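Q: Convert this sequence to structure tokens.
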Amino acid sequence: MSTKKLINSVEHCVDDALSGLVSVHTSLRLLQGHKIVVREDIDEVIKAGKVTLLCGGGSGHEPAQAGYVGPGMLSVAVAGAVFASPPPGSILTALRHVTKPDSAGCVVIITNYTGDRLNFGLAIERARQEGLKVDSITIGEDCALTSSDRSAGRRGLAGTVLLNKICGALAEEGKSLEEIVQFGKRVTENMGTMGVSLTPCSVPGSGPTFSLGDDEMELGLGLHGEAGVKRSKIKPAGEVVKMILDHMTNISTATHIKLTKGDKVACMVNNLGGLSLLEMNIVAGEVISQLEKRGVAVERGYCGSFMTSLEMAGLSITILHLDDTIRRCLDAKAAVPAWSPPVLSRNKSYRETPSCIPVIQEESSHSTGNFTRTTKESADMLYDMIKLSMGRLIASENELNDLDKESGDGDCGSTLARGAKEILKEIGQNNQPGLPVDTPADLALSLARIVENSMGGSSGALYSLFFTSAAGPLQQDVTGSGWKRALKEGTDTVMRYGGARPGDRTMIDALFAAVTSIDENVSSCPVSVMETAVNAAVLAANSTASMKAQAGRASYVSAERLKNPDPGAVAVTLWLQAILEILKTA
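A:
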């Protein structure tokens, strides 16, 4: 079964993609009738006596290789169909365009796949017969292979991009073809790459290139989905990185890269197409941290989509040993669409283990000693109310998440549970210091601080606003009237800043209903007052199921999809009911 692709047609998707690239980057040109992208100033480069640089291969690995055409990297890139080597005729056309019989010549970088070796090799031989000065570097830096079989050899992977950068810088400096080829070959010998995939990719017009279980990953696979060396259950990022580095440096394999304490390296963490930036940054941090724990200095780190495999959710790690020339070439400027160098410190010429700088300490939100304290009996009751309320929110995590999936991203329960767990961590045990339950105003400010720092998102901000405003009335009044005003002011503040009103299908519906019922209840019995408030809140929360959302994420969702109560409103009833239960036992 074919998978979804946003293309015009399968037949012309590569041509359309290259056309789009040169439309955005006006310094690039397409050679008419070919899938060839060339620098607009190529004639000037040739006249200046500089070596030109050509690389290419099957499409589907964008931004490679056309994304690296420009000053400081490639002179020209030749693309084939998706996952297919370009034909020799196109490669020869590109060579004729970037070198002349009396010019400095062209270096061709070939990734080590059979089709590329054959087609690029044939084009090179024909170019030489025409009197063109051409030489090549074949890169195969794959560390996944466990044997030294010569049937196929090591595959050319994302390390090709680093080779493009280094050779491009040497060409820009005016180095000769012989010097660039000699140095480029040395670079490939000091480099290794290995990847991991969580999902397959799919060629336009076709289905997935291979299959992986929902809980599986594959180590050491190729750019086109060629089988890897190991399939296993998905593990945390740190464990996956360790597995890759251990395999890459395993001296018992024929394709390992040597790493010893004191080595200085560049490291590229390459997105194979489908991982989020969040995941990529996590992995990059793990790679650099684990290498440094081995005593290896990561002087240059790169993280991004450099050579992909369509939408494959996976990554590869490339390690390159550094010397002064390689470092200089990597740092040289390159005006190309896809090269993303690291942003280096102004004060260091290389990366060091980052050190944390001290933050400005906030004033403690715990007891100030200036606010009214409550009785020990009331403090114990507050302690029990908090424990039971937070326990209810934690126990309802999945229920609230399910409700949130209708209108949001399905994390309302997890967000509230995260805050509840942090509150329980800080509340302390009996007779142990913890939250200032004996000083309600300080308690409210402490709760505001905890939810702000732990929950995040809108819920964290709204509850922090609620507790911060509620603290005001409790500074001098901890009687029933003080708690009544605290609930009202907290609710009013959430409405003022959050923008929601009763009837908008939010937590305000339950809060406002509780506040209104308390205002209208003249009973002096706390339990009776609270029972009325809880009943009103539950009724209001249930009624949100039939409301049209006017605020929050749900307001962007079709009303037909909203069939259940709002999770924020339901959550309010959970902690109100817990408070009532403790009141009844007093």
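The CA atoms of residues 48 and 174 lie 9 Å apart.
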